[in-house]
Write a structure and sequence with these properties.
The structure holds two protein chains of two kinds. Chain A is of the alpha/beta class. Helices cover 39% and strands 13% of the residues of chain A. Chain A folds into three domains: 169 residues, Aconitase, domain 3 (2-Layer Sandwich), CATH 3.30.499; 106 residues, no CATH class; 111 residues, Aconitase, domain 3 (2-Layer Sandwich), CATH 3.30.499. Chain A is built from 16 helices and 14 strands. In chain A, α9 links the parallel β7 and β8. By secondary structure, chain B is of the alpha/beta class. Chain B has a single domain, classed as Glucose Oxidase, domain 1 (3-Layer(bba) Sandwich). The radius of gyration of chain B is 13 Å and the shape is globular. The chains are: A alpha/beta, B alpha/beta. At the A-B interface, α2, α3 and α15 of A face α1 and α2 of B.
Chain lengths: 419, 136
Amino acid sequence: MVELSAEERSIASGAQGEGAAMALRIVTEAARLMGAPRLIPVASAHIDGALYHGDSGTLFAERLVAGDARVAVRATLNVGALAPAGCAAIRLPAHERDMAGRMMRAYEAMGCEPSWTCAPYQAGHRPAVGTDVAWGESNAVIFCNSVLGARTNRYGDFLDIACAIAGCAPDYGLHQPENRIASLLIDVSGLSRALRSSDVFYPVLGTYLGRAAGNAVAVIEGLQGCTNEDRLKALGAAAASAGGVGLFHVAGVTPEAPDAATALGHVAPREHLVLTPQELQAALARLSTAGATQRIDAVAIGSPHLSLAEIAEVERLLAGRKLAAPLYANTGRHVVGPLAANGRRAALEAAGVVFVVDTCVVVTPILPEIDGAVLMTNSGKFAHYAPGNTGYAVTYGSLCECVESAVAGHLVREALIWS
Amino acid sequence: MELTAEILIPGEAVSAPCLALTAPISFWGGVDPRTGLIIDARHPQRGASIAGTVLALPGTIGSSSASAVLLELVHAGKAPAAILMDAPDAILLLGIIVAREMGWQAPPALRLPAEQQQALAGRRLTLSASGAIIIN
């Protein structure tokens, strides 16, 4: 039984309008289902529910708007199915385009910020360590928990906006400190430091972590001095695609893991895994589906959305050359705005880069339909979802290999030692 | 024969054939929201329709948009008649909670352990509003 405060009961019965009442009833029902004894206040929300999957989601959002619902806390928006900031053309039929647009406007009308990015944490939305929040989108959830040290469960469509309107969430799962303690220890210190310090390692490690951990919490030992924020972003996104991981710790790096023993709660781990080169190879192989072909029809980078630092790396690798295959650079308006202001966007577009802003190539139809097409990517999440959602087979590689392949128009590999 | 299940989300009595999945499913990318057909290429029940069935789920996996797919199935008239779940899931079942808030006819959900689900496969079941499952 969920215990509501007097104020919560009055909101649920309509004291602040029907939209607020509906939101609080939804949060309370979720709490009852999950056995949460009470609701707790949340400081912010990140909303994944504004991506169009069918008309019913639009009707739900418009019902909330009609009931005068407003978000009670800061709420950023994840990607939508359209790209109001322009860039790549979207091949969505007229009815779907109209309903997707109505849905996006309804969420904005409730006071959500038009951030339209899956990397809100690099667009200025960074809750403090220990803060309870209600975030959706699996990569944002895992980054928020692991790298920022704020506390969120994986909030699905509808519950995310309901929590933002109600300003509270069910008290269970990763909101409770005891559920944030690692039960699994993964030791990667046997791999070379060069590999551990390379970007291309992290989506592969994330794929391994997702499969090894499922939805358990792991602490990784052996990455001190090897990581940066974009590497942790790539690690989390891959882990959350390959498994149900909502939180991981990196000993000596992430805020709840000054060392492995602390992350484990000073208890012996349930399982102690040592990552071997063979297992790493297996995880690497899992990221590609295209087989031994040299064919590349397109390159897609930016899942999660590219940071300014990642764009700067593309510019460095491109070094003024032109692309033979299109390179889709998925990012948010928080990145493309500054790029446009100083002419860098125009220069990249002239070279053949296609910016995809406010959305991305796996959630809405952007890539042209081509029989037997192959997509190259450096993203573990794109590698996971592109075959099902776009029909393209996938070849995984480093950012350098992605840029060189786009320049050449066929697969180019660099010498890399996976051990 | 009769079983008793914990009610996760109440609803009216229903009578329908049982589709008991033999593997967990992700509704997003796994079920077509317009037709109710299982489209996950790797799923053992690929091609089966969940519309109008008592759908027995040994587990749910994957995307947090499962709730949106279930709501869309309800709206399109392609939802299961009832759902049996091994454990409550705050993502999938949100689709039913929201459908009820929208005033749409939504399926009830009952909790039934995965090991009891397979015996119901293909049988016609009658579910009472109080959580009794009668195997016809």
